[in-house]
Specification:
about 30% helix
Amino acid sequence: MTRRRSRRGLADAARRILGHPREAGAILWARLTGKRLRARQRLAALVGVDHRLTVPARILDGFPPARAGLGDDLRLIGGVLVAGAPARIAAVFAAEPDLQALYGDALAQDRAGGPAWPLLPPVFDADRLAAFDYLGPVLAYRRTALDPDIHPLSPADAAFRIAERHGPRAIGHLPEILSIRREDGDPLAPRSGRGGSGLHTVGEGGLIHHRVVEARLDRTGRAGARVVPADGLLRVEHPLPDPPPLASLIVPTRDRLDLLRPCLDSLRGCTDWPSIEILVCDNDSREPETLAYLVDLERQGRGHVVPCPGPFNFAAMNNAAAARARGRLLVFINNDVEAFQPDWLTLMAREALRPDVGAVGAKLLDGEGRIQHGGIVLGTGGLVTHGHRHFPGNAPGYRAALQVTHAVSAVTAACLVVEADKFRAVGGFDDAVFAVDFNDVDLCLRLNAAGYRTLLVPGAVLHHREAASRRWTPEALARHAREIAALKTRWGPLLAQDPHYHPGFDPDLSTHARLRRHFPPAGTATIRRPA
């Protein structure tokens, strides 16, 4: 970030603080009373967030190049290891007999004498890897992991082939600094135009990665998919059935016609999917204007109303509508969400219709145009957090996470697409335990446990006026506390550390914004693999 941009950011933050004196006072009070985490979170929500991830250049002096290699039983593709890394890699392979490939973290310096940036990858994710080669600078693998006549073109090429032969869990991530990269360019973004392991937008490297991805699609029987360059990245466009199947758009509500009307108008007027039905779950609406609107909705054939009387139970309402839905695709939409890009459902449906994919989520923007949802990250913010929350709406995200389709642990039901058969196979939303909160997290984790992957599709973008229709009462707070306890009981081990989120990040602020204190940590890290 340049000094000019930093000054502009500080000025914008100051204006927001001065323009919201009540919230600024609450932040100050939280700070004075020792609630520093709460103060940091509320300040981030007020002024927005960006990356603050650099470490001093002198840290690079602690990672000289390794003098020894990996030995005859292991292969290395990519860059150069740092001192101590060969022995550490060899020890991991010796301790993990079923491990076939290993990659780690890196530090990158974008200019001589400048600060270093951490390159902190998630566990192996074939969708993210198709967009750009995030595994490097180096990948180590067993000599026997591939046939002797196979000579991988890049770390991504090696990883794809090993995953195809041995399964994704044969590839591990070691959250330790294994290599250093010194070059010009933005180290947080996929690399462009220079040799090595990242995606190249120009030159030979970009052509190589394009060839690698196309070859993988051919080998795995997906020749019908297209590889499309997009903003310096690659996007795999999966084919759709012909004709595209019916999609059932499910919208729960209780009155709040001021939200429901623009929501449904946007779904009808700004969705290019050719075959949709709209089901409105009505939870005891009483306002005459709302009731008249719902009658007209059905009379004019623009939607169906599913009566859902009784205490508000978001999960049960969605289940009731899903039971009546005729579509192959179920599209759960909050009444405070609005579509504004026509291709949002097409982009999500291409992923949701893949046999190995369960829930699919969209990138959601809040009322101020900032990121409201970029996937759900487990074990952050005290329990779970929306990824990249409060970042600018046009932010690329850490290493293009807000640009490329990739695996996440969960997505919000404010906009969630899933095939009806998969939804019903896992029992739908758990309306007995998670009536209002965490039912989406629980659904995604049960789909994951059943062998389906949850994907975020950042190309699908909608507006979300989060919690605009929610009212916190003492009863609601008590119910929320019960659902927190239930989530911890059911999914406690997963909540300790999200496999798609690097443990080097600060877990208490907006995701991908800050490093943990004392980075990089001392001691031996635990190897991480896909679920």
